[in-house]
Amino acid sequence: MTRLGVNVDHVATVRQARMIDIPDPVEAALLAEQAGADLITVHLREDRRHIQERDVSRLRQRLTAGLNLEMAGNSEMTGHALSLKPDDACLVPERREELTTEGGLDVVAHGKQLREVVSRLRDAGIRVSLFVDPDLKQLEASREAGADAVEIHTGAYCDAGGPRQAEELEAVRQAAAAAAGLGLEVHGGHGLNAGNVAPIAAIEEIVELNIGHSIVARSIMVGMAQAVKEMKALIAAAESAGS
Length: 243
What we know:
The chain is α/β, with parallel strands linked by helices and 243 residues long. It is built from 11 helices and 8 strands.
């Protein structure tokens, strides 16, 4: 069954709006874990707009599920990852002016730098994925960089409407098949919600989905445990329908 990674960044976003101790993303992560989340994902951004080092440290101490750290592929963040020792690290592009990650890494252009970062993380026992657009050249470069996995950026699919969405879904399908053929584990994420997750979850090669904003938003209405259970059920139903 496809693993569900629950991203709790935006629990921390609410906390940082007042710069106080609540709501606690660690407690939210533990509730998600108890409700069936297979791993917890957090993005330690360079500007620390939501998740802080102390959050990642506490998660590392308290989680039973895996910890997936999203991070920029630079020396500062690599040092933090080597100190914090998450189970997984997902290298993502990062610009301070963006609201959220806007696209995949350009692994083709930055292969040398990324190979060095991937090597250091893997030598420390951390599994590494690269967040990339559904593009064959980026997938091939990811394999050459030594990544264990790729997370295919599903944002274009999620943002598209009408016939364009079907085209974007097919691009994700083709990328997933190509990545698996290259020996990479295939993940997916960005913009997924209850209304659009099923076709992505039905793609056989995708073994992990990382979903944050929509689950946190739903949790405001029904609680974190229920929001996680609903998403797990949607993923399971999509897999059953596709098998």
